[in-house]
Hints:
This protein is mostly beta strands. It is 9% helix and 42% strand. The chain has one domain (2-157, 186-214).
Amino acid sequence: MKKTKIILGIGALAIASFFMVAADHIDAPAVASGTADITDFYAFQAEDPNNVVFVANVQGLLSPSATASAAFDENVLIEFNIDTTGDNVEDLVLQAIPRDGRMYFFGPTIPGSVGVDSAIETNATQTSVAISAYGEAATATTNAGMKFFAGPRDDPFFMDFAQYGEIIAGNATGFNSPGVDTFKGTNVMSIVVEVPKTMVGGSGTINTWVEAKTKQ
């Protein structure tokens, strides 16, 4: 689970102050070796200040040679959770699940249940997009004012793990500029949704997190 808080102000905040990220590239072996491993969760204001973008990246540290055959797991539901009331319980969900080379999206909608168990919200707004192949340009599908993408992308997260190790060991006091990108040359499987703010809380504050849920 990745969690962050984002303020849905309209046009009043600079992009830098509106950008939130939660990252975790190395999980427990039972998760890290599987297709349910979430590497990053991003939430930020879109180029259109009336919209917000949610990004979930899974299956981190894919080498270029492994990326062409990488695929989303059809037994894994990716669920973006949105809390609009500040109680840390999802009031809205936006779900993504792959089938036969396409990613199917449901929502945003009020969930039928909250917590660790979810059912696919088939009565919500539905959109599907062809999962892009490795090397293809990013193309988005639009529906009901929203935009959707799914497919492999270069890992956008920057982290200098070697320097981090030096800091932890007491051999350095901080990071270098620009440092060394440990994840350079690796890829992730990415799910991206751009949503009008009016669909996810208007101009207030939301808590948002993403979960990968496996079929039982």
